Amino acid sequence: MKLKLKIKDKEYEVDILEEKEGLKIKVGGKEFLFKKEIEEEKISPILSTSFPKRDFSKKEILAPIAGMISEIFVKEGEFIKKEKKIMLLSAMKMENEIISEFEGKIKKILVEKNQKVKTGDTLIILE
To answer: How do the domains of the chain map onto residue ranges?
Structure first.
């Protein structure tokens, strides 16, 4: 999942990747690995509240953080490519670009402009 965060007029590109060992987060060329707890096969409680567990067999675009949808750049029935900017999500006085992790036709948009969302809420379903 790729995100663009804007904090005080400075933009950051963030890549979030799920791996067997846990989550890998890449910010500004630096990589951070958050490992799963081996005995319980789950990500630490701090990360599980921030990053929802993903089922990558489904083409769903989820809210990476809680906030309010401030713009929607796509429509149902539209074909989108991977890494297309599809929405803006406002959270903590920041505009966060929601970038598609998948390529496909938009089957359903489940949110509207100015709607509040929680971390992990499904925003869009692709065919």
So the answer is: 2-126
| Domain 2-126 listed as CATH 2.40.50.100 | yes
pLDDT digits (tens, 9 = 90+) for 44-103: 444 444 445 555 557 898 998 899 999 999 999 999 998 899 999 998 888 889 998 889
SS (H, E, C) the chain: CEEEEEECCEEEEEEEEEECCEEEEEECCEEEEEECECCCCECCHHHHHHCCCCCCCCCEEECCCCEEEEEECCCCCCEECCCCEEEEEEECCEEEEEECCCCEEEEEECCCCCCEECCCCEEEEEC
Phi, psi for residue 47 in degrees, rounded to 5:
-75, -35
- Residue 52's identity, in one-letter code, is P
* Highest mean pLDDT, choosing among 15-19, 32-36, 94-98: 94-98
